[in-house]
Amino acid sequence: MNNRFDNKVVIVTGGASGIGLETAHQFAAEGAITVIADINAEKEAEVIAAFKERNQECIYYHTDVANSGEVQRLMNTVIERYGRIDILFNNAGIEISGAVVDFTEEEYQQIMDVNLRSVFLCSKYVLKHMRERSSGVIINMASVASFLAWNNDALYSASKAAVKLLTQAMAVEYAPYTIRVNAVAPGIIDTPMTDRAIGAISNVAELKKIKGKIHPLGRLGLPSEIALTVLFLASDEASFITGAILPVDGGYLAG
């Protein structure tokens, strides 16, 4: 096993399940000091146990990453404890499907808070620190929906399109400080969030097969495939990559 991230301090938001959890495991496996920030306090014991099963360690902070005060406390606590933050993976996200006319204003705000505001807040408060050190990497969670509009998913698509442009703007703004900012744009991935999105359908397994066929490769993506892409973007192997929005989509955008 490579140790590309030996003693690097990494924060993964929304790290209690799905892509976030798998990415946190992969960072820990390569030597990182892995910090999970998640709104779900009840998941803490389960997540720590999962790390122990793999002979890994993580630090779990119950954090609402759409709350400015909580984000500032998270960043300050990590810096006080470890002296720095090397890598931030803005992974936290939600999907609420529906027609525009059917969305409530509260649902609109919830999607924008979790998918966009959290990226802004976490980046804002970590960039102040990274700028002082002239070093750091941020990876954001975009989506193929940031390139193409999805039917009955207007607000999710809009939030991810905003993440895409925010990523590129931050990449240009902070390149002079040797800070790299990129994003991954997954297709449909086999995660608990996908299960929740299709949970109203009686035959979930069959619907997953249908959704998998949307990708030219003919299947859903795996959390590990997104995680390994995030690790590549965070590593020195990607030292000349910034402002990229990297599709990991089984060929979805190609065709």
UniProtKB/TrEMBL annotation:
Pfam families: adh_short_C2. GO terms for molecular function: glucose 1-dehydrogenase [NAD(P)+] activity. Keywords: Oxidoreductase. Its EC number is 1.1.1.47. It is an enzyme of class 1 (oxidoreductase). Belongs to the short-chain dehydrogenases/reductases (SDR) family. This is Glucose 1-dehydrogenase.
